[in-house]
Amino acid sequence: MPLLLVADIGGTKSDVALFDLSREPETPLHHKRYQNRAFQSFGAVLTDFLRNSPSPEYGCLGVAAVVKNGIAKLTNSDWILERSKLQDTFSLKDIWLINDLTAVCSSLPLLQNKDCLTIQQGQREADGIQAVLAPGTGLGEGFLLDGKNCFLPRGSEGGHCDFAPLNSEQSKLLAFMRNTHNTVSYELLCSGIGIPNIFDYLSTTDILRDKKRMALILSATDRTAPIVEGAHGNAPCPLCTKTVTLFLEILGAEAGNLALKTYATGGLFIGGGILPRIAEYVSFDGFLAAFCQKEKMVQLMESIPIHIIQKRDAALLGCAHFGYKRYLEFSLPFL
């Protein structure tokens, strides 16, 4: 039984698994999650994972990084992965390094209805391009072309495009951000990095805030979680609620930009770890309004289905799907 080593390597954590290459991927044979900060390199993670596991023959690693010439330096970490070095060190016949959003895009054909929450029904075109927007540690963007003779998942670095404010409040936010950043990208506002930035801006205004929640946020190493948690519950903090509301409005606008640029009539899928955790507590009215507010394209925007990916291991499954296709020598453009 040939085995495929698969990993979803993010800015803060890495999921590593083994899949059986004799069939289309569904469930991993073995899976383990690692916190990156506990290891000096991804090679050290693999050494730990494979210590008590059977030896894989192939590998497919999804990395939160630009992948070029077989080398990937993580965008939000100091880890560097080299394809040839990993292949030699772990005695693999072949290994593929792909962008983490390429991995998420690769998972779309394998997702079932129960894996997604639909927030705009729309009218899906069967052969339409599918786009992915993934706010997590950073902001990932990508798309999938999936037809009879084509399977092209592609991650991009669209999250680093310049932020464009939609109103006076967002213009003030941009001015605030320019005090500390020469260039303000969507990632700086629509991600785990971005939520504290929005919170800091709103903290300069007269919005009411809960003192206990403020103390908890200010003492936290990762402020995103307590800010998001403070936005809902029996006694939500107004400042936290406004932070999440503004975050969703900006994210909706950029989701619309991505859908327009890819002509995503096959649907827009939202990945990452933030929205699945808050979906049941928040209103998506602001997100949808910003998504559809595209001048002459309102009707088109309203026709695009929008789904939140709730399957936690979608990127891992996507890596397995990509590796399986490569193993079968499917006609895939190499990344």
Could you estimate the helical fraction of the residues in percent? 25-40%
Q: N- to C-terminal separation?
A: 27 Å
Label the overall shape.
Answer: globular
Approximately what portion of the residues adopt beta-strand conformation?
A: 15-25%
Low-confidence stretches: 330-335
The value of Rg in angstroms is: 20 Å
Return the domain count: 2
CATH architecture of the largest domain: 3-Layer(aba) Sandwich
Kindly name the structural category: alpha/beta
What is the N-to-C order of secondary-structure elements (H for helix, E for strand)?
EEEHEEEEHEHEEEEHHHHHEHHHEH
Oligomer: single chain
Report on the architecture of this protein.
By secondary structure, the chain is an alpha/beta fold. It has two domains: 3-100 and 313-327, ATPase, nucleotide binding domain (Nucleotidyltransferase, domain 5, 2-Layer Sandwich), CATH 3.30.420.40; 159-309, Hexokinase, domain 1. The chain has twelve helices and 14 strands. It has helices at residues 42-50, 83-89, 100-107, 168-177, 194-202, 211-219, 224-229, 238-262, 275-278, 285-292, 298-303, 314-327, and strands at 3-9, 13-20, 30-35, 58-63, 65-68, 71-74, 80-82, 94-99, 116-120, 130-135, 139-147, 150-156, 267-270, 306-309. The strands form three sheets. It has a six-stranded mixed beta sheet with strand order 9-14-13-10-11-12, sandwiched between helices. It has a five-stranded mixed beta sheet with strand order 3-2-1-4-8, sandwiched between helices. Strand 1 and strand 2 (13-20) form a beta hairpin. Helix 8 (238-262) packs parallel to helix 10. It is globular and about 60 Å long.
